[in-house]
Design goal:
The chain is mostly helical. The protein has helices at residues 3-13, 18-25, 29-37, 44-53, 89-92, 117-130, 133-139, 142-148, 156-169, 197-200, and strands at residues 66-69, 78-81, 95-98, 110-113. Helix content is 41%, strand content 7%. The chain starts with a helix and ends in a 14-residue tail after the last helix.
Length: 214
């Protein structure tokens, strides 16, 4: 999604007109219109201010990738992510029927209530063993996985493969070495802290926002 379409999406999702959002963000309707058309480019601080005024926030989200791990010791292949991810609460705590209608998993189909800790653990065990990347992304929340990790009954190869992601997401008593230029260890849950909203919504317009970039 381009910067201009992002601003338009945030505004429309909030049900706001350009004039209403411009007033909330401390800019003008013509300037916001120019941003949305792509004839002007806002600075990152201005774009963040506009998105937050529409009730959203900008986030830095690492690319999520999956690799299929070959089966070993009688276990069939399974999928492993390169980092953990988060679900919206509504999805993370809903009721799901597993296996899905298009799955050939060796278990009977039944409902799992993800708001219930025990049911969630049983569902996560099943998905980690049998699921594909879509199943993982649809039903597993990274923080909730960390929370029930010690309670999961998993084959050793699956536990060993996922263990580094779980360990990196947990707090450590000692600062863990990080990659150069990175504030979080590989595999950790990464989210930007909320911006200083008051700073971005201070009186007056950004001195650069009414001037075309370049």
């Amino acid at each position: 999604m381009s910067g201009r379409s992002l601003l338009a999406y945030a505004r429309r999702a909030a049900g706001l007109t350009q004039d209403a959002l411009a007033r909330l963000a401390g800019t003008s309707q013509p300037t916001l219109s120019a941003y949305e058309r792509g004839t002007k480019s806002p600075s990152l601080a201005v774009a963040e201010r506009i998105v937050e005024a529409a009730g959203h926030r900008l986030e830095v989200v690492p690319n999520l990738e999956f690799v299929e791990v070959p089966g070993q010791h009688g276990l069939h292949p399974f999928w492993l992510a390169n980092q953990l991810w988060r679900l919206d609460p509504e999805r993370a705590f809903r009721m799901v029927l597993l296996p899905g209608p298009d799955h050939d998993w060796p278990v009977p189909r039944r409902p799992y209530y993800l708001h219930d800790r025990t049911d969630r653990a049983r569902a996560y065990e099943l998905i980690l063993r049998e699921g594909n990347p879509s199943d993982l992304l649809d039903h597993i929340d990274g923080a909730l996985l960390v929370d029930v990790w010690k309670e999961l009954d998993l084959p050793d190869p699956i536990r060993r493969a996922w263990q580094p992601l779980i360990r990196n997401a947990l707090p450590s008593r000692r600062p863990r070495a990080t990659r150069a230029g990175s504030e979080s260890p590989p595999g950790a849950l990464i989210r930007l802290r909320p911006s200083e909203r008051a700073r971005h919504l201070r009186l007056g317009k950004d001195e650069h926002e009414d001037h075309p970039s370049g």
